[in-house]
Amino acid sequence: MSELTPKTMGQQFGRRSWAEPWKIKMVEPLTVTSREQRERALTEAGYNTFLLRSEDVYIDLLTDSGTNAMSDRQWAGIMLGDEAYAGSRNFYHLEEAVQTYYGYKYMVPTHQGRGAEHLISQVAIKHGQYVPGNMYFTTTRLHQELAGGIFVDVIIDEAHDATSLHPFKGNIDLDKLKALIKREGAGRIAYVSLAGTVNMAGGQPVSLANVKALRALCDQHGLKIYLDATRMMENAFFIQEREAGYADHSIAAILKEFCGYTDGAWMSAKKDNLVNIGGWLAVNDSDLFEEIRNLVVVYEGLHTYGGLAGRDMEAMAIGIAEGVQDAHIRSRIGQVRYLGELLTDWGIPIVLPIGGHAIFLDARRFYPHIPQSEFPAQTLAAELYLDSGIRSMERGVVSAGRDPETGDHHYPKLELTRLTIPRRVYTQAHMDVVAESVKAVYDVRAQTRGLKMVFEPKYLRFFQARFERL
User: Fold this and answer.
1) What is the structure's pLDDT at 2?
2) Annotated catalytic sites, by residue?
């Protein structure tokens, strides 16, 4: 199947242009601020875009988590919320949707993905066990470490190279995993932590061939595979587009087949499931499910609401069905590619291939004169906000945190600033504004200085750390 971009989609239909498969029914006013206002807001926020007030932001590309626009059907579902403490009918709608589209037998809802990460870490990790995964994600790794686990990165080397054009940079390197099994023994491995469209690598997908081979290897050694399914619908699109034999398969069919090679999954429904809050954890093992169902009562709420209102579960169930629609996924990834192609046409360094949920600016190439110790990705996020009021976020040394044994910064090979596109929220014109702002900042890059960290919280420092200009 040929690569689908806004340009090629327009060519397929002759003179007819490509457009989103939805129309706007409600609008939310945006605030345009002056540079003087933005300088004051950024200083008060300690040069951390997470600490900005949303009212001071023009185009908010901080995250695609919980920032989606819900459909008219989802809003109608909100009015059908059954707010019973136990046995809400909306829970059973959500359970059926997870079973239908993801294929897992048992499910508990959670208040968001972080709650599900916590539960699977607590029930599946014994102190001192290793948790190999295809690159870390911040909250996932922290929950694994708090449960006594030791994360080991077993992603392919190409994932750490922003310029590599490997079509499936999220793949697990089976030789790295075999080496870990040989060195430590299968009994010291809790499970394999597999993420679809790997966020920290630039939204890069995992192939079906890779997960099939991973399944075979894990079966040889009695290991479980648990999936971060947060953006698996986007991963399914890349399989449909790039993997031989899947061009004629629907997103729904690919998603279910992929999940079928895993033993369970956790989900931040605030992404692919098109809602503003919520998550779930699903498994196939009945004994493990009983542990999870018991533990969810301690941390989230009864197993039929898991920290959510009935209306939220109903919107989530509807969002799952909408999220697997092929036209929706093409539109969603098409908008990301539109922005990425504008930037690459201007020679601005980004992670390639363009991922599914965001454009990742390569801050190391953007600011080659700023060392990682001076936080180039954090600097770039600050400069973009100053230029135009666009909010992005850092995915580099700040997000990587510190080595728990030495206390030194982790220095990842990828030092990235993420422009994350919410689903069904912004127009093509907004993407034009974003691209022009990135170019304006790029044109004056040689004059830019780095930052120093002046406040650092104990956990997940990128959320609340504060910085000053050097």
Assistant:
1) 47
2) 85, 137-138, 228, 271, 395, 462
